[in-house]
Amino acid sequence: MDCEDMQMIISEEPNLSERKEGGKRGRKPGRKASNEKIDIRAKLERSRQSARECRARKKLRYQYLEELVADREKAVFALRAELERYRLWNSELSEGRIPNGFQQLLEETGFVKQEIIV
């Protein structure tokens, strides 16, 4: 195809910027329903109900997160107490003493088997 053929094809295509008036999308001005006030009231009520439900979901979500944080804080405190106990045991073992509860821990974990006296 040469340049003249291309110009003929372009000139034959319809102009896309020109649109039919009947083919427009969206709202048509001047066309309002007679029951518009009822629709507006219903829409407002649906909006209010949706807002109430949204606030309720938000409240439940915050309660869930607060409970989750509280549970995690309890776990952190328990782990800190356990860590402190292990530090004390370590210092006692370093001094050559067996700390209280250490023997029981070894037996529970299976490192030391209980001797059965017959």
From TrEMBL:
> Which InterPro entries does its entry note?
bZIP, bZIP_sf, CREBL2/REPTOR-BP
Any Pfam family the entry gives: bZIP_2
- Please provide one cellular component term from the Gene Ontology annotations of this protein: nucleus
Q: Where is the BZIP domain?
A: 44-87
Disordered: annotated span:
1-42
Q: Which UniProt keywords apply?
A: Activator, DNA-binding, Nucleus, Transcription, Transcription regulation
- Compartments, record wording: Nucleus
- UniProt protein name: BZIP domain-containing protein
**Organism in which the protein naturally occurs:** Glossina brevipalpis
